[in-house]
Amino acid sequence: MSYAMVLCAALEGVTGHLVRVEADLAAGLPVVVLSGLPDTALNEARERVRAAITNSGERWPQQRISINLDPADLRKRGSAFDLPIALAILGGTGTLPLAGLADVLVLGELGLDGSVRPVRGVLPMVAAAAGQGIAKAIVPVGNAAEAALVPGMRVLAADTLGRVIGFLRGRCALLEPPEVAARRVGSEPDLADVAGQEMGRLGVELAAAGGHHLALFGPPGAGKTMLAQRLPSLLPRLDDEASLEVTALHSIAGVLAPGEPLLRRPPYQAPHHTASVAALVGGGSGLARPGALSLAHRGVLFLDEAPEFTRHALDTLRQPLEGGVVTLGRSRGVVVYPAQVQLVLAANPCPCARPSGDPGCACTPQVKRRYLGRISGPLLDRIDIRLTLPPLKASHLFTDASMREPSQVVAQRVAAARATAAARWAGLGARCNGEVPGTVLRQRRWRLPDDVTDGLRRRLDTGEMSARGHDRVLRMAWTLSDLAGLDRPGKDEINIALNLRDGGNA
Ligand SMILES: [Zn+2]
């Protein structure tokens, strides 16, 4: 037999597709020809596969070897094809029976020594195979726990090519995936830990209830980071689909810890202001890594000391924030990763990071203005809630934490408000107020009476506020209305929403 086929998978964004790895051995010069749009990493596979096969004690065939990855029009990146290529070649020589691999997904990078090494993106690839009716997968031992998260999939783990060969010859067994550890409960930061900052607490509750972006200004130590860290604890748990999607993004980024269960809580990412644009939005050669923006998908992206980020980095965020996806330009084609995040920005009032009124601060009002001005207008325009937090007073620290509302209680109000909004906007392209299209807000059915919105319209007419800003105030007003249990927003909700947007609440 000179032809063999092994099933593998490739990723297109966060979606996996089955790939047939075919090997054909024929008389001729002993060369390896790869076809089916391989990227450079795949070309390197040639050398890894050759070394791994010989170092596993097998003979490298002195024949012309054609490897084809089918479908050809699907872009294939990364090193997950090594193991299937090696098995297909040995199958093609007739020395290795591949009957045991019919309808089995095989993934894995090979080391030159014949070891099977972990690859990124195993979860979405295995999930895609399961969706195609594949019920068994052989994956690197380092990825086995992750692959086992896919319901109904029988996962076998491989540590060496030699073991897989032995398994196919009926001489040894593959390894069992490790047990997935149950996540520790109660480890999430709780809103009850935040002393004082009543406005800040209200801000995160509103942000959670309506899916609004939030900016927190205030001196160091006021609790900006603490508040941002607690926003995920107010958001609803991820449903099955979202959970798989979020975990898949972490899998593709290679940041999923072994034994980590499916991510059920909205993620939280806080990239440092020195982070590269690639770390922020994604990039890299081969299989592009999702950046913090996509790792925060369905959760919270926190940018502390936002004015310290480069203008370029902040501008790069604008489009994804609007579209909910990040598009990475590649040498061949593009990669699109989901990126629906709630943004939380934080900034000190001045570049010296001293509290206002501190005698050591020599920053002039002009310097302070310029510092905050580094958060560009178009980005700030997308932020519905802008709060200036006062410095923390000593008395706040001595209030009993048990007297403060815990996340669980606030999360119940958030869930109720979200349910109201979801029911109202069902079929209109939104799950929460922050997502409602402007055209829907202005439909006759949802339009608010003129006497309620006159102040808002005046600002639009005088050019004081952009059309985008106008719609954002309306969305915020709906959130205030939902939390208050009202039928629809009145003048008060519009005024509070305007106030939140102005940041004139300190
Ligand atoms: Zn200063």
Describe the structure.
The chain is α/β, with parallel strands linked by helices. 37% of the residues lie in helices and 17% in strands. It is built from 19 helices and 18 strands. The strands form six sheets. Strands 11-14-17-10-18 form a five-stranded parallel sheet. Strands 1-2-4-3 form a four-stranded mixed sheet. Strand 12 and strand 13 (289-290) form a beta hairpin. Helix 1 (40-55) packs across helix 2 (82-93). It is elongated, with a radius of gyration of 27 Å. Residues 350, 352, 354, 361, 363 line the site of zinc ion (ZN). Zinc ion is lined by residues 350, 352, 354, 361, 363.
Briefly note the structural class of the backbone.
alpha/beta
Strand percentage: 15-25%
Distinct small-molecule ligands in the complex: zinc ion
Low-confidence stretches: none
Give the averaged pLDDT, no decimals: 90
Number of helices: 19
Q: Which term fits the overall shape?
A: elongated
Distance between the termini: 78 Å
The value of Rg in angstroms is 27 Å
> Considering DSSP H and I runs of 4 or more, what fraction of the residues is helical?
25-40%
What does the main sheet amount to?
5 strands, parallel
Number of strands: 18
